[in-house]
Design brief:
The chain has 631 residues and is of the alpha/beta class. The chain has four domains: 19-217, 3-Layer(aba) Sandwich (Rossmann fold); 222-293; 303-530, Rossmann fold (3-Layer(aba) Sandwich); 536-630, Helicase, Ruva Protein, domain 3. The chain is 42% helix and 15% strand. It is built from 22 helices and 20 strands. The strands form six sheets. It has a six-stranded mixed beta sheet with strand order 5-4-6-7-1-8. Strands 10-11-14-9-17 form a five-stranded parallel beta sheet. Strands 18-19-20 form a three-stranded mixed beta sheet. α7 crosses α8 and α11 (303-318) runs antiparallel to α12. The relative contact order is 0.07.
Length: 631
Amino acid sequence: MSAEDTRAPGSVPPTGGPPFIREFEATLPVHAQFVLWGNRHDSFLVREPGGTRPRLLSLPDLLWETLRTSGYACLLVHDPVDGLRVHLPATATAEETERAEAAAARLLPRLPRPGTLLSLEALRTLMAGLARPALRIRAALAIDDASRIARGATEMEPNERDFFRFCARLSRIAVPVGAPDGRTTPLYNPVIWLADREGDLPAWLTSGNDQIRSIGLPVPDLGDRQTTARLLMKPFGVTDLDADARAAGACDAFAARTDGLTLQAMIEITRLARDRGLTATELPDAIRLYKLGVMDNPWKREYLRKRITDGQHSIPRRVVGQPQAVTKTLDILKRAALGLSGAQQSRSSDRPRGVLFFAGPTGVGKTELAKAVSSLIFADESAYLRFDMSEFSSEHAGDRLIGAPPGYVGFEAGGELTNAVRRQPFRVILFDEIEKAHPRILDKFLQVLEDGRLTDGRGSTVRFSESVLVFTSNLGMSVEDGGGRLVPHVHPGMPYEEIEERVKTAISDHFTRVLGRPELLNRLGDNIVVFDFIGPEAAARIFDLQLDNIVSRVHEEQGIVLDVAPGARAALRERCAGDPRMGGRGIGTALESQFVNPLARALFDRDPAAGARVRVTGLRREGDIVSVELA
């Protein structure tokens, strides 16, 4: 800054404002145009000198406050809805309004009347009058919604391309203007482009052009959110946070739970809370309603604790022979129900309520346990959502999860995963056989596991903070020998502790050495649940359960009372449940071929009437054909 830069008394700029506005204010002597992109619709915190109460200002108000203290007479704003206007805050007096409008009229005698929508040609005329003013009057022009001027940054009509070429040239021939008030150093009358993204304007407009400065507007940090939270506590009857420890804790929690949100969103959340009659300590419920659109929280329902307690008895009857996996899963659910997921972190987290990585042999109950968790927590198995990750082995298949990017076929439809969670955020989401997904698709889970959110192809944020994510994998079951052949790495009869160690080591090796994604493994943490092989006793129980299901189905569908003689049951059990490597799914497959198919053939041929009693007395095999003997 030049040593000649002096300010009139009382014209101190808002040095307590966000860093981007201080950068804007400091570089007014050297740049004729600015591109402000990013979080432009937010409210911005200004801490006044002298320790007075901070204020929240909109971006146009903040720009005007900064320009006014630098000796600018007016700020013109043009947007494609309201047209052209002289911007002043709502608190401006009639005298201030008259002075600003008069300055604009003196500088630009042919200024269109307020509300006029300007063509690109009219904008060129207006910008030229500001860039090389005939009078020593400082003024600025903010072009709001600049992202919509052209059809696209790379696909422009000829008149749009000519307009931006003119703007680039104008930035180089603009002259700074001195003023008797504010900063006496000559400053440019800037054109301020307000855009959603930096790339929404042509790259060649700013590339290599020292007269145009691009400044990003980030979302607020924790410090700004904490200050804003304190400003918003007064409507809840909180006047002295220093004397009210509980209110101060609620205020800090409010700031922490709004990570990733704007200050304007915090304002809206407090309005929502007051509308619902909530207190300051109940602001987390308002945050959930704002983020997810639902007030009811299944994790807070009174009966959930009892359901989880009952699950200690009901789930082992459903997922047979996996006491270690069931116990660890229930521990993670208890932690989630108490709101202690991520409690070791220094700040509140929006991570998923629970994350489970089920590993182990096939057919031992991994998918069944995921369904049981859904039924246990949400009393609804339809809250269970499954993705077979073998269908996502190619990189482009990830578009199915989050939606295609703009310009691609299917963009409007959105993603299967993001759409489902947006409709129902309280879900158990199963990603089956995760190791078969393309590594690039696995990268999408990094943000979900860390921050509990994912941005879909349309740019909307989907939140997973109330979901339980379950990954299943068969990693560690087999390894390559020296000849490149797969050989068993674990086998039935091996102690569970050894199986667990070998499987976890294989998972760690896969994510770190094979995929090169140790950060993903780190986010899974200690939530890896290893399943054991089905033992003989468990296999017999699974067999009995599935056979009873068949008997019940025959009665439901045909009205026939089916009875299986003990000898036939024992022979069938030996055939279907004799190999523990088959798992529960293998037992079901064997039952279908060894019993259901021959039973259907026999019932079809005999065609017993509804209400009849049919007894299976034995099994008979002739070559590959199995038949049942009925009495």
